[in-house]
Amino acid sequence: MPTDECSRPSTTVSAPNTTSRRAFVSAAGAGATLGLAGCLGGDEDDTIKVGFVFATSGPYSLLGESHINGFQLRIDEELGGELDGREVEYVQRDTGGDPETGVTIAEEFIQSEDVDFLVGPVSGAVAFAMEPIVGQYEDEVVWLSTNSANNDLSYARGEYQTRNMFLGYQAWQLAAATGEWVYDNLGETAALSYADYAAGIEYTEDFQDGYEEAGGEVLGDVAMPLGEDDYSPYLSTIEDTDAEVVWSFFAGADAVNYIRDFHEFGLDEEMTQAGAAFLLSADTLEAQGEAAEGKYSSSIYTLDYESETNDEFKSSYESAYDTDPNIYAVLSYDGAQMMETAVEETGGVNPPELIEAMEGMELDSPRGPFEMDPDLHVPVHDVHMREVQMDDDGEPYNEVVDTIESVRPPW
Amino acid sequence: MSEKSIPTDRAATKSDGVLGKRGKYGLLTLGILAVIIGPIVDVIDPFWFRLLVNVLVFALFAASLDLVFGYTGLPSFGHAAMFGAGGYAAALLLLNGFASALVVLPIAILVTIFISVIIGWISARTKDLYFSFITLAFAQILFIAAFIDLPARILSPDRITRGDDGLVGVPAYDLGVTLTDPMYYYFFTLVVVAAGVYTIIAVANSPFGRVLRGIHENEERMRAIGYNVTNYKVLAFTISGALTGLAGALYVPHSSVAHPNLFHWLVSGELVIIVLVGGMGSIWGPMVAAGLFVYLEHVLSAFANWLLILGLIYVVFVIFVPDGLSELLKRAVRNPRDVPNNAKRSIKSYINSVRYR
Amino acid sequence: MSVQATLLGLQIAMAYFLIVAGLVIIYGMMDVINVAHGSLYMLGAYIGLTLYDVVGNFFVILVVAPLLVGIIAAGLETLTIRPLYGRHPLYHILLTLGLALIIEEVVKIVWGVDTHRIPTPEVLSGQIVVGSVNFPRYRLFVIGISLLVAVAMYLVFTRTKFGIIMRASSSDAEMVDALGMDVSKVYTAVFVAGSMLAAFAGVLMGVTNAVTPTMGIDIIIIAFAILVIGGAGSLLGVVISSLIVGMLVAYVSLFAPAMSELIIYLLMAAVLIVKPSGLLGE
């Protein structure tokens, strides 16, 4: 029944068929604003519609903006806003990082806007909340969850799974997979410090698993409230463990404050600081300044990673937005590349076909080449181990000191 | 709370309590309109139809808050506590095999009554700003408890509130038929919300409600006459809290998520704004404002920097529409021709007020 | 007792005090619940950041940024708060929440959403030995300068004509009138002074805390909690409650990190149960 194509999937309300619904609406002159245009013919559309479900206000706004920039850089700047001869259109709403809002927006984009692709969100909590809802529309939309890092969201794992969801990366890849490297290179005993929320807990547990498996010993851990301004009161607990390494999960302003406090209280001189990407990344380094020097992090993207693709990407991003790209921009840039390749390959926007095309897809990304795992719907990519060094102007940057190749979660 | 400047339609209050006969008919008309409009909106756009459920839920929330806030004069900044408690209670039951609305809703209400009595009983000793902040403190305590999954940390290593991931995939109620169909859920919500609003109006217009009004106008006098003011306040807070919990229990299965944000002070704050914009103490004004807010915020959120627009709306509104929507609409209905004059007058008085003498 | 935790508690307390000091004079004298206070704190940090790029001297911006925020505050007060005099204090919440949203969004448009930090001034970087522990020099500076501000505020209120008029306006606006003063000018002055304190705190804390568009909204509820615990309107009460909260946060962070945020709200509830108008409220 064609009705299902553009309204909710499984309702029993008898409704007039699609065309007459549309006729009614356009007669009322409301068609344009309500965005029902996509309903008419599925594959014969002459536009491809993308819905951005990102936070553009609140603490996640930098991430949301970067994602949207990265995506539009590929489609609008580099491809002239067209894919396979069709114009790409966007709709966008601010989730504010709130799961209920995220669900509402996802429903609107699918039901009313008839988007072909959902891109977002930033927050794992929002992705979790959207998952059962978007999961009901597997034949209508492809979901590029270009940021969310929760392990449980990968297809074929855990209780949440939607086949039409493709993820940017996994907590496991940045944490557990680096445990052995940290043990071999930085120290045999570690303390853990992290922001006390779902992502912080997951990353830290993953790291602990990987580190202990490699033979390392964890001597203590401190969970600190998310959004804390002042980390100094917690530092003595870390110091008292006498561990060689401190492994941490903080992001954004938290990462800036934590690293600066760590440095200010002289803990640098006693232990080596390491952590997941966000602790020391392009969006935090400027504010962290010299406090970041000599600290390690794992990431899938490094601004100074040397490759032709990355150089081109960087100059293209800079000329479009007048600023350096960050990991979030890359993730959605790659999401756009996946969409581009899949649309060209299948010659349409039929979600089951697109999903099939994306499974096992190989991409040349600014982060380095990677493959989309056909079972997990997660990229199998290299993890860079970086150390922060100071350039000639005294500005910190990440130097890739080692690469863990083709990291795939073990489930 | 000084009474000097609280806008009240005292003459009307004295004669027929909250909502005169006309107001009641007005509300009834709105209800009937909701019955007709729902299916029509659904045909036009199923998503905008789904938002109508949010409108109903927040209308009930706003009316409940207004009963204590505008009507009794207790400026609660912590009503999110009850909204979240009702929502979480419903989510936990629905996710654990209890599907019947006849079981889940009463339990959710009982849970919020329990919480409201505690918060109300402790908070009723304080006044004004202090009342606002002690209620806010309780809501923030619940927010943090849900956010770090304090119940699980205390009771067992398992997850209970699931921290900031929240409880997701909350199924709809069952009522003989399952209410997964948005049309069913809409009418179910409409009936429950109508019953809730009816309760609020009945309470406001009862002898008990007149005592609450008396407390608002002059607490000392009521005490002198011999009323146990504190008990009245606690009871009013509990009734309001229970209905707020009911709104939460309707909201969560609809959005399918129970997240700590339900408890957040920004939720309480937004509802306070809705009550102020709608017109304190009128009950219907805040309900209308709730509907406007649900749609306005959704429409605005498509724009970059949309909070700027929202902020401007707050500022302009509070300066130029001091008594809230309810008074504005009343005046406009009573004397439609005066509308341009009134507008001119308020602009003039604004200009006068910003000038130095 | 840990020397380090005690020093930290003191430093956290003094940082809170600087933020709340502005709130307390605005609420105490004008009866305005200023939700936008956190946003002026943030604005101070951002203006300081930009000035720093121009001037390059921390101590200059510590003085100039508050002055610029003071000018903005004068405009806000005149155009938006003044028309609301005599209205119920609840309406100020609606108004100032609107102002807070506007300021935050304007900051995002002007400065973007990146995270920044004001560099630690050279003379105040590094650590010095205090008793048995090393303590960052800059944080000792924060303690010192905040104490100075507290003393200065006390002197202004009790010893100067300006302070006397300000206090008179809170207890009896008519008396100010009788003195031949324009109450609305006094109110503007109070609001400007409070906002300058917020901006001063913003610059000072922009060195130890990340400067982001959300730093204002993040701090405002805790600031109000401290105000209420101390007894709104009481300067001494706020000093005491800042100290209690600062110490509590420092020690709880050490022994039960998960509780360090919760403890502030528990304390507020506990204080209001025992003393419904705050520690030194009337």
Automatic annotation (TrEMBL), chain A:
Keywords: Signal
Keyword Signal carried by entry: yes
Listed PANTHER family: LEUCINE-SPECIFIC-BINDING PROTEIN (PTHR30483), PERIPLASMIC BINDING PROTEIN OF ABC TRANSPORTER FOR NATURAL AMINO ACIDS (PTHR30483:SF6)
Name by which UniProt lists this protein: ABC transporter substrate-binding protein
Pfam families named in the record: Peripla_BP_6
Domain Leucine-binding protein as annotated: residue spans: 47-392
TrEMBL record, chain B:
Keywords assigned: Cell membrane, Membrane, Transmembrane, Transmembrane helix
The UniProt record lists the keyword Cell inner membrane: no
TM segment ranges: 25-41, 47-69, 101-122, 129-148, 183-208, 229-251, 271-296, 303-321
Protein localization: Cell membrane
Listed GO MF terms: branched-chain amino acid transmembrane transporter activity
Superkingdom of the source species: Archaea
Cleavable signal peptide: none
CDD domains, sorted: TM_PBP1_LivM_like
Keyword Thylakoid annotated: no
CC per GO annotation: plasma membrane
Main location: membrane
A UniProt-annotated Pfam family: BPD_transp_2
UniProt membrane topology term: Multi-pass membrane protein
Protein name: Branched-chain amino acid ABC transporter permease
Species of the source: Natrarchaeobius chitinivorans
Taxonomic lineage from the root: Archaea, Methanobacteriati, Methanobacteriota, Stenosarchaea group, Halobacteria
From TrEMBL, chain C:
Molecular function in Gene Ontology: transmembrane transporter activity
A UniProt-annotated Pfam family: BPD_transp_2
GO cellular component: plasma membrane
Membrane disposition: Multi-pass membrane protein
Assigned keywords, A-Z: Amino-acid transport, Cell membrane, Membrane, Transmembrane, Transmembrane helix, Transport
GO BP term (any one): amino acid transport
Top-rank taxon: Archaea
Classification via InterPro entries: ABC_transp_permease, BCAA_transport_permease
Subcellular locations according to the entry: Cell membrane
Ranges annotated as spanning the membrane: 6-28, 58-79, 91-111, 138-157, 186-207, 219-250, 262-280
UniProt entry tagged with the keyword Membrane: yes
PANTHER family the UniProt entry points to: ABC TRANSPORTER ATP-BINDING PROTEIN (PTHR11795:SF442), BRANCHED-CHAIN AMINO ACID TRANSPORT SYSTEM PERMEASE PROTEIN LIVH (PTHR11795)
Family classification: Belongs to the binding-protein-dependent transport system permease family. LivHM subfamily.
Protein name: Branched-chain amino acid ABC transporter permease
Organism placement in taxonomy: Archaea, Methanobacteriati, Methanobacteriota, Stenosarchaea group, Halobacteria
